[in-house]
Amino acid sequence: MTVEGHYPSTDEVTAYQKTKIAELRERAATHLAKYPDYDTDFSLLRWLMGWDYDIDVILPKIQSTLDVLKCLRIDEITIQNQCSFRKAEAATGKKLGAKIIIDLDNFSMDVLYPPALNVYLNLLTLLQALFPDFGRHIYVINSPMMIKTVYAMIQPVLSKQTKEKVTFLGNDWKEFLVNELGEHNIYRHWGGSKASDLPTGDVRMGGKVPEKLQYKAEDNVDDDKKDFTKVTVAARSKVEVRLLRKLMSIIRSTCGASSTTVSVHCC
């Protein structure tokens, strides 16, 4: 099935797909009851398409996903994009998907700090598990020369469907995106005309932290540094620091019906 074939209208859903949707809904009924808004034909079809209609594989994954969403209390929060997404599907009678732009402008290998890269890869894995078959296309722009090296690091955690949706655009990416997405849907920074106070709209730009925002100990005038002791911790080792003031931290678990209290005392 082509990428575009993953986004049928209600009339285009096949008899086989309808049968599998009904089967998944019945077998996942207990889990879906935790988050009723999730129980739509197109939501379930995403799972089926994302995992080759293998319901035995899908069930534990959908249970884990709904548990996460419930723990985050997503069902109690009004999320504009999420709500409008499902409303749009209901209104148009068509399975929708997000078109994602990844801008690698000013990217350098310096940001690929191994521990941070592991976190990023784990995040990609989690997002694919939580939102299967959600992305319709992924456009990568301003790719640096080392993109093949970077993509080789990321590719192992990408699902087959995600890989099929990734497109690396060339120098004509602005013209391509305007033709593909519409000028009115793109902020000025990327060649569109979408209205916003900032050229980048509400997109939080990544990149190197400006020097003026970086922490400098000498700027912290409130610290009495004469009694400070510098501690150097070597790699794969630890240093214990005794605190003079007793501290207590109470962590309450808000996930589930029960409440857990943990007390930590430092002296």
UniProtKB/TrEMBL annotation:
Species this protein is from: Teladorsagia circumcincta (Brown stomach worm)
Name of the featured protein: CRAL/TRIO domain protein
**Which PROSITE patterns did the record assign?**
CRAL_TRIO
Domain (CRAL-TRIO): give its ranges: 20-198
Q: Name one Pfam family in it.
A: CRAL_TRIO
* Gene Ontology annotations for the cellular component aspect, listed alphabetically: cytoplasm
Task: Write down the InterPro entries for this protein, in alphabetical order.
Answer: CRAL-TRIO_dom, CRAL-TRIO_dom_sf, CRAL/TRIO_N_dom_sf, SEC14/CRAL-TRIO_domain
